[in-house]
Amino acid sequence: MNKLKVAIVGSGNIGTDLLIKIIRSPYLECTMFIGRNANSPGMLKARSLGVPTYDTSINSIVMDPSLCDVVVDATSARDHLDHAPILKRLGKFVIDMTPSNIGEMCVPAINLKECLDRDNVNMITCGGQASLPIAYAIGKSQKNVNYIEVVSSISSKSAGPATRTNLDEYIETTEEAIKHFSGCNRAKAILNLNPANPCIDMQTTIFALVDKPDMDALLSSVNEMITSIQSFVPGYKLIVPPTIENGRIVVMVKVQGLGDYLPTYAGNLDIINCAAIAIAEEYAKIHNL
Question: Do 229 and 158 have their domain in common?
Fold first, then answer.
């Protein structure tokens, strides 16, 4: 089986960590690592690994579209607004790592297979990848879900320039995704950047207001989700199982990264990258036989 050719647009922390994960994939090959600064740490790392680098951003693909089949956009929501129509015209399968919310919202543990025939798949946000499976489990197992709130705390050091640029889009896209996947009409998302040293691991708490909650059904649904996610994100752990506290349901999860290019505390970046690799590999299995 030939490996599927992948272009990564964006040479920051997310793009470089994706590169390391793709290099060890049996289904994917990074044929284009694309940035704007030929001497950025990510570009230097890619060249040290023998990966072809390009410093003319999206124009690198426009000049020779045959060099890639799949494009992973790890830039910013604003940049993806420009990139999406270009890549659609070129017929590329796009995995959007930004919270632009242009393509089909994808959480592999929930709707991976439904996304494989779309031309643009949006990975939502890191907090979304951590919380949405639990929000989905709540919506699936409970009647009358009145409100869901998710609070993610990440190390400040794991929030690079792109993450900080996208904070408004992060909140809007995560809240829309919570409502989409849970069926709840009211949702709130909060992101805390914690400056503690040593750095903290990513931790996400999900609160829900539910009439007459069925806790046994919820625990079963949550455990099913945890097992599914751990198949591609080994560091995803349930640290507080569904609990009633002050009349609301509380569930807490923690994400520790694989430590590929980024430190293990950067679980927020690791989970969204692992989710992107999961869908790229499934796409490769179907389209590269």
Answer: yes
3-state SS, residue 61:
helix
Task: State the catalytic residue, choosing from 68, 106, 115, 126.
Answer: 126
Give per-residue pLDDT as tens, 223-266.
999 999 999 999 999 999 999 999 999 999 999 999 999 999 99
Q: What is the pLDDT of residues 102-125, one digit of tens each?
A: 999 999 999 999 999 999 999 999
Q: What is the pLDDT of residue 2?
A: 83
DSSP state of 36: S
Rounded to two decimals, what is the model's pTM? Answer: 0.93
CATH number of the CATH domain containing 162:
3.30.360.10
Binding residues for NAD(+): 11-14, 158-166, 268
Q: What is the dihedral of CA 30, 31, 37, 38, to 10 degrees?
A: 110
83 and 43 housed in the same domain: yes
Residue numbers in the known binding site are 11-14, 158-166, 268
Q: How far apart are CA 39 and CA 281, in angstroms?
A: 30
**Type of residue found at 32:** M
In this structure, what CATH number is given to the domain that contains residue 78? Answer: 3.40.50.720
Range of the domain at 241: 126-266
> Is residue 274 annotated as a catalytic residue, yes or no?
no
Would you state the pLDDT for residue 49? 97
Number of structural domains in the chain: 2
Q: What is the pLDDT of residue 165?
A: 81
